[in-house]
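On clarity, I found the account of how folds are encoded harder to follow than it need be. What matters is that the chain and its backbone geometry are given together, residue for residue. For the editor and my fellow referees, an illustration may be useful. For illustration, here is how one protein appears when written out as sequence plus structure tokens:

___
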Amino acid sequence: MIESSTKLTLTGADPQNLAKLTDYQSKSIVSRTLIQDACGTLTVFSFDKGQALSAHTVPFNAFIQVLDGQAKITIGEKACLVNPGEIVFMPGGVPHEVKADQRVKMLLTMFKKQG
């Protein structure tokens, strides 16, 4: 189950603790959009253990930065484990999926490709 939280209104010079912007919920994926505009989006996610986003493709380049826990991310044919403080690039147009073998919080940054 995917649940969305309310959108956060960010203001300049207002530090935020990313890991605290979304809570874990049993058997759910929770998201909170921080920024969404014509250039892209910035969204914080929390995945309960065992939750996943199945393989899909988007036309945007994206980065996932793990804030807590560990995510198994498959990009194309290559799977990797991403740990807290690590970031992984997902090129637009390439299938990818995210699995949480344990609880995980992550920041997703998507931006439109030029040209």
